[in-house]
Design a protein that fits this description.
Length: about 325
C-alpha cells in the first residue's frame, strides 16, 4: 500500500474515481448547498469545476466519472420558498469533458416524482439511475447506452436500491420479504437477459460500486457487519471480513474490495491473491460523506484531522498491491 496523493477537498461528497481522474461535489460557499461538480486529474494535478446547477440556488449531487465522462444530478431550487413540500425539479446530466458537450438523460415528469432525487451510476458506455415512480420507496431501474442511445428498464416499480455498474452488467438489491432484509440481483446489459439472483440470505444491508467480475456487498452480522464478494456469473459468496461497521460502504475494483471497519478505519481485502485484510487509514478522522471509491489499483477515501472542522477535509489516494 502506497499513498500517492492528498487533495484538499472541503466538504467533498460522493467522491468517485476512474483511471487518473476523480470527481466529487462541493459547495462554492462554506456551509452552503453543494453546487459544484469538481474533477481532479492525478497526472496533471489540475482541478476544474466541471459543472454547476442549471438554475440559481440549485444543487449538484451524485457525481460519477468514467474515463472522460461525468454524470451527475442537477436539482433545481425548491418549488416553494418555505420548502413546505420538500419537492424539487431534477435532471440527470451527462457531460463529456473532452468536448464540453452535455446532455439531459432524464428529468422529473410530475410533482410526485420530485420528492426523490435519483441516484446515478456511470460506467461507459452505460449510465444507470433510479427513476421515482411517484409511489413512496418505489423506483424504476433505468439504463442508457450512451453510444447507441438504447434505453432500457431493468426492473420496474420496486423498492430498488444499491446500484452497481460495470461495462456489461448492473447489480441492485430488492427486499427479501421472508427474511426482512434484502438480496442482490444482477442483469446482463449486453445480452438483455432476465435478471438473476446473486444472494439468498436476505441479509444484505449495502451493495457497492464494483468494477470487475464480482459484486461487493455487506450483511448484518452479530450487531455489526460483514463484507462479502460474490461472482457475477453466480457461485458461493466469499467472506472478506466480519469485523466491519454497521454501514461499511463496501466498494470494489477488479481485484480488491475496500470498506470502513468497526473502528472507522479503511480496510482493503484482495479476492484474487488470498492476501489478508490490510488497514490503510485514515490517519485522522474518517470523513464519511466522502465515502470510499476504487478503480484499478487505486482506492480513495476522505479524512479530516479535526472532527469539528469538516471543511478541512482531504481526499487520500493510495495504490493497492494486489499481485
Amino acid at each position: 500500500m502506497r499513498e500517492i496523493a492528498r487533495i484538499p477537498a472541503a466538504d467533498a461528497s460522493w467522491v468517485d474515481i476512474s483511471g487518473q481522474r476523480l470527481t466529487w461535489t462541493t459547495a462554492s460557499q462554506p456551509g452552503g448547498r453543494h453546487d459544484e461538480v469538481v474533477v481532479y486529474d492525478l497526472t496533471t494535478k489540475q482541478q476544474q469545476i466541471a459543472a454547476r446547477p442549471g438554475t440559481r440556488g440549485g444543487v449538484t449531487d451524485w457525481s460519477r466519472i468514467s474515463d472522460t465522462t461525468v454524470a451527475y444530478t442537477d436539482q433545481a431550487a425548491d418549488l416553494n420558498a418555505d420548502n413546505s413540500t420538500g419537492h424539487s425539479p431534477w435532471r440527470i446530466m451527462v457531460l463529456n469533458l473532452s468536448t464540453g458537450k452535455s446532455q439531459v438523460v432524464d428529468q422529473d415528469r410530475s410533482v410526485a416524482e420530485q420528492a426523490f432525487v435519483p441516484t446515478v451510476e456511470l460506467h461507459l458506455p452505460w449510465v444507470a439511475w433510479l427513476r421515482p415512480t411517484g409511489r413512496p420507496n418505489h423506483y424504476d431501474l433505468m439504463v442508457l447506452n450512451l453510444e447507441t442511445n438504447q434505453r432500457r428498464t431493468v426492473a420496474a416499480d420496486g423498492d430498488i436500491f444499491d446500484i452497481g455498474l460495470t461495462s456489461s452488467s448492473v447489480t441492485y438489491s430488492l427486499p427479501a420479504s421472508e427474511q426482512g432484509g434484502r438480496n442482490l440481483f444482477v442483469a446482463e446489459l449486453v445480452s438483455g437477459s432476465s435478471p438473476k439472483q446473486l444472494t439468498t440470505t436476505g441479509a444484505v444491508t449495502e451493495g457497492g460500486k464494483h468494477g470487475g467480475r464480482v459484486a461487493v456487498y455487506a450483511e448484518a452480522k452479530a450487531g455489526t457487519g460483514a463484507v462479502y464478494v460474490v461472482p457475477l456469473a453466480g457461485g458461493p459468496p466469499q467472506l472478506l471480513s466480519d469485523a466491519v461497521s454497521e454501514a461499511p460502504n463496501p466498494v470494489g475494483s477488479e481485484a480488491f474490495a475496500a470498506w470502513w471497519n468497526g473502528s472507522g478505519d479503511v480496510q482493503v481485502g484482495s479476492f484474487t491473491s488470498g492476501r489478508p485484510v490490510t488497514t490503510v487509514g485514515p490517519k485522522g478522522y474518517s470523513h464519511v460523506p466522502s465515502r470510499i471509491t476504487a478503480d484499478g489499483d487505486l482506492v480513495v477515501w476522505g479524512e479530516v484531522k479535526d472532527i469539528n472542522q469538516p471543511d478541512a477535509a482531504e481526499l487520500v489516494v493510495s495504490k493497492v498491491a494486489v499481485g
